[in-house]
Design a protein that fits this description.
- The chain has helices at about 1-15, 20-25, 30-45, 50-55, 70-80, 100-115, 130-150, 155-185, 190-210, 235-245; strands at about 125-130, 235.
- The protein is mostly helical.
- It has a single domain (about 1-245), classed as TorD-like (Orthogonal Bundle).
- It has a two-stranded antiparallel ribbon with strand order 1-2.
- The two termini are about 20 Å apart.
């Protein structure tokens, strides 16, 4: 469950900021709790995830800073913008070699992963399925499903879930998240989102190493905007968590 807790923090961090964002990710108490979780993984994997949480650029609001959703909202909009091509695009299909069909294939593959585990798309939502929060939410789902399979001693579910984790890291999150995270860290040095980007890049890189797949490079070019966008709506983070609750009871395998 420690893996899922880190993914849950990343999902929260990359959604539009709220009071919960501040209390869980931008306060001393919240950062300390997240670091304790990361330390459990460090002990098991011999990693340095807790240092990424507690380091000089940890994702917290500095003392004396205007600690409010409005302050983080301004930073959020500055970095991610109101369209797909903001300063730091948070969408997988914005990264990679120029191609007319590759982004559509990536979107289709993402939808296939979600549908295979019973995750539906909410028509009322207008976010794209390749958003970083959506992809981290799917990894959160898989981490919790893996924990459930271990508790229930369900070897088939465990094998299928771990296979999906490897493939999703190899083909999607692990391919572009390191570059996205490093880009965010460069554009927001010393800021909340810069630190969140460092945590994302470090954690996903460790996850790739853990399952034996190569992590993507720290630099990926943005695709040309002249080729057009491939919009595709996805459900919110809350909806994916709602479906995950059913999965833990065995309803969605």
């Amino acid at each position: 469950m420690c893996r899922s807790a880190l993914y849950e923090a990343l999902v929260l961090g990359f959604l539009p900021p709220t009071n919960e964002t501040i209390s869980r990710l931008a306060s001393s108490e919240g950062v300390a709790a997240l670091a304790d979780t990361a330390a459990v993984l460090d002990a098991a994997w011999n990693t340095n995830l807790s240092e990424l949480v507690l380091g000089p650029s940890a994702p917290r609001v500095p003392p004396g800073c205007l600690c409010s959703p409005a302050a983080l909202e301004a930073s959020f909009r500055k970095l991610f913008g109101h369209t797909a091509r903001g300063l730091v695009p948070p969408y997988e299909t914005e990264y990679g070699e120029d191609s007319l069909f590759q982004p559509l294939q990536e979107m289709s593959d993402l939808a296939g992963f979600f549908h295979a585990f019973g995750l539906g798309l909410r028509p009322s939502e207008h976010e794209r399925i390749d958003h970083i929060a959506c992809e981290c939410e799917f990894m959160l789902f898989l981490a919790r499903k893996e924990a459930y399979a271990l508790v229930m001693d369900d070897a088939t579910m465990l094998e299928e879930t771990r296979r999906a984790t490897r493939l999703f890291l190899k083909d999607h999150l692990g391919r572009w998240a390191p570059a996205f995270g490093r880009r965010l860290a460069r554009e927001d040095r010393g800021g909340f989102y810069g630190a969140l980007g460092e945590l994302l890049a470090g954690y996903v890189t460790h996850e790739c190493a853990r399952v034996g797949v190569p992590a993507g490079p720290e630099l990926l070019h943005l695709r040309s905007t002249s080729l057009g966008d491939a919009p595709m709506a996805c459900g919110s983070g809350d909806e994916l968590l709602q479906i995950e609750t059913s999965a833990r009871t065995g309803a969605a395998e």
